[in-house]
Write a structure and sequence with these properties.
The complex is a heterodimer of chains A (249) and B (313). Chain A contains nine helices and ten strands. By secondary structure, chain A is of the alpha/beta class. Chain A has two domains: 163 residues, Rossmann fold; 78 residues, no CATH class. In chain A, helix 3 packs across helix 4, helix 3 runs parallel beside helix 5 and helix 4 packs across helix 5. The model of chain A has no long low-confidence stretch (mean pLDDT 93). Chain B has a domain of 213 residues. In chain B, helix 3 packs across helix 9. Chain B starts with a helix and ends in a 7-residue tail after the last helix. The chains are: A alpha/beta (249), B mainly alpha (313). Chains A and B meet through helix 2 and helix 3 of A and helix 6, helix 7 and helix 8 of B. Bound molecules: adenosine-5'-diphosphate and magnesium ion. Magnesium ion binds next to helix 1 of chain A. The site of magnesium ion has 3 residues of chain A, from helix 1.
């Protein structure tokens, strides 16, 4: 049990009468890429938002690295080692790409009650930020305004920001959604390069991406996890095929 | 190129303001020294509001409260015979900071419209408090018999000396806000304005940074209040009237939010226009109001965005 980085038990969240997450049990091992698939409206984003601390669960518990983090809000969870990308890209559009990542570095470099020195000329923030931008292939776009990046570049930037916080667990909500084939290929290559080094939960619709990246897959349907297993088992699972994959094949 | 234009802009601005008293002295027009001193005091108030409104996205509709607290701190201490500026001004700044801390603590968690209403409500409370205390003149306000004393170093009753003091403090405030906005603290503030969910997701809790900025802004505006009391030698609850808060906000927006020169440009244009129109017709507010609304709609970047060298970065 002790190699579990994340242990979720009985997680439930309702919006009015709608049970978006209904008693979810879920584990992530250290180093694992655990994909979550399921049809639209299954509750995947709601699940991720409860892990990141953006949404409060109605019931259930979240243990992270052996510690109960259920009461913690998003900033506190980020400090513990959670980082996320949002299904709808969430970046600082009015800032440059480099500023975006430097802010993520700054968020984990002690308190920010420093009022005098210009943050943009601090090598302690800018140098590592540049490395993370290089790491996702955005090195040449460092000084571009984030709003002016292409959709694919913005998603890469968001991943760079998440990585710059040196997370223990990376939560990715549909990282290749809405991308062209070339862009999405670049993202899959990036995620593949992280695989093994970076523990990840990957919510994704693109089945090729999921089956190539995931160590384990959980299938979420109407707020419940109906199966968890290795990619081959999930492919073979008839219940899963009926509930979900059936639409694809 | 850009940096060059900025240098010229600021050099011209500093030179023009510094040379104004001797020039209008020659022309025997002391009125302009008074007017521009008032402009610069309001530029301090607007620069302080710009820190939270422009950089922080906190639309405070109660910033005149700190003009009032700063002004009343000077007036009340003077009423009790304590005329030392070394005492009065720190009290003006400190009391404004404390009240801002309290108001901010209550209001900052509220978002959008609620934040505007709460800040407005608190300032209205202070306004009615000012009206209700007869001892300090109530509705009519109170004359300040002796201006703040600084051990004989400077005589604030001398219009030119006090002009230069205000000038130095104004550029000091503008520079301070400029530095803060670019520091780590300022980056957190601006990032939270840009995208709060993203800030929280990378580990920032915007609340404490916003509260701190709100307190600093209150303190700086308290200084403007102390200067205004010395400028008019009179304090009245009108310092805190909601239209005053609106004026300061208009200065920031007209000048250009989140720009260093904006508050000064906004204060200059608004107060000069007000004065010109008031000399021309009694109904100047009827003309000024729509002009302001149009200017906000058509120059989204404000004056700082259209004057070469006045913009930032
Ligand atoms: N804030 C909300 N308020 C009300 N209903 C919501 C909210 N967020 C999500 N839902 C509903 O909860 C269900 C699950 O949504 P979501 O988690 O976004 O699904 P998925 O990410 O799997 O597509 C959907 O039916 C959605 O309409
Ligand atoms: Mg979703």
């Amino acid at each position: 049990m002790n190699d579990m980085l994340l242990e979720v038990r009985g997680l439930s969240k309702s919006f009015g009468a709608l049970r978006a997450c209904d008693g979810i049990d879920f584990d992530v091992r250290e180093g694992e890429t655990h994909a979550v698939i399921g049809p639209n409206g299954a509750g995947k984003t709601t699940f991720i938002s409860q892990l990141s601390g953006d949404l409060r669960p109605d019931q259930g518990s979240i243990r992270f690295a052996g510690q109960d983090v259920t009461p913690l809000r998003a900033p506190a969870r980020a400090k513990k080692g959670f980082a996320r990308s949002f299904q709808i890209t969430s970046i600082y559009r009015e800032f440059t790409a480099l500023d975006n990542v430097a802010l993520a570095i700054q968020a984990h470099a002690g308190h920010s009650f420093r009022f005098w020195k210009p943050a943009r000329s601090e090598p302690a923030l800018r140098d590592p930020a540049r490395q993370y931008l290089d790491g996702v292939g955005l090195g040449e776009r460092a000084n571009a305004l984030a709003a002016n990046l292409s959709h694919g570049e913005q998603r890469q930037l968001e991943v760079a920001m998440a990585l710059a916080t040196k997370p223990r667990l990376l939560l990715l909500d549909e990282p290749v959604a809405g991308m062209g084939t070339e862009e999405s290929q670049r993202m899959v290559t990036l995620l593949d390069s992280l695989k093994g080094r970076q523990t990840m939960i990957l919510v994704e619709h693109d089945m090729d991406a999921v089956f190539s990246l995931a160590d384990r897959i959980s299938v979420l349907v109407y707020g419940r996890i109906i199966a968890t297993g290795a990619p081959l088992d999930i492919r073979a699972n008839t219940e899963v095929r009926q509930a979900y994959l059936g639409e694809d094949s | 190129m850009r940096a060059h234009a900025q240098l010229i802009f600021w050099a011209v601005l500093v030179a023009a303001l510094a040379l104004l008293p001797p020039v209008v002295g020659v022309l025997h027009e002391p009125f302009y020294v008074e007017l521009v001193r008032r402009v610069m005091i309001f530029a301090i108030a607007a620069a302080s509001l710009n820190l939270i409104l422009g950089y922080g996205g906190l639309v405070s509709f109660g910033h005149a409260a700190y003009l009032g607290i700063g002004g009343y701190a000077v007036g009340i201490l003077s009423f009790y015979g304590m005329n030392s500026g070394w005492l009065q001004w720190p009290v003006a700044i400190g009391a404004s900071a404390l009240v801002a801390l309290a108001i901010g603590a209550v209001s900052i968690r509220a978002s959008g419209m609620y934040f505007i209403m709460i800040t407005l409500a608190f300032t209205q409370m202070l306004y009615y408090l000012g009206i209700s205390i007869e001892e300090f003149g109530g509705d009519d306000g109170m004359r300040i018999k002796t201006r703040s004393q600084f051990s004989g170093l400077i005589d604030l009753a001398d219009p030119v000396a006090s002009y230069y003091l205000v000038l130095v403090l104004m550029f000091g405030t503008i520079y301070l806000v400029h530095r803060i906005a670019r520091s780590r603290f300022g980056m957190v503030l601006r990032a939270a304005k840009s995208n709060e969910a993203r800030s929280r997701a990378i580990g920032f809790s915007p609340y404490s940074y916003r509260l701190c900025a709100f307190t600093i802004a209150g303190a700086l505006c308290g200084l403007a209040g102390a200067l205004l009391a010395n400028h008019t030698a009179y304090i009245t609850p009108d310092f805190m009237h909601w239209t005053r808060s609106g004026e300061i906000m208009f200065m920031v927006i007209l000048g250009g939010v989140a720009s260093s020169a904006g508050p000064l440009l906004g204060a200059l244009v608004l107060l000069v226009f007000e004065t010109l129109l008031a000399g021309w017709t009694e109904h100047w507010q009827v003309i000024l109001g729509p002009l302001l609304v149009l200017s906000v709609i058509f120059f989204r970047t404000g004056l700082a965005g259209i004057i070469p060298g006045a913009g930032d970065e």
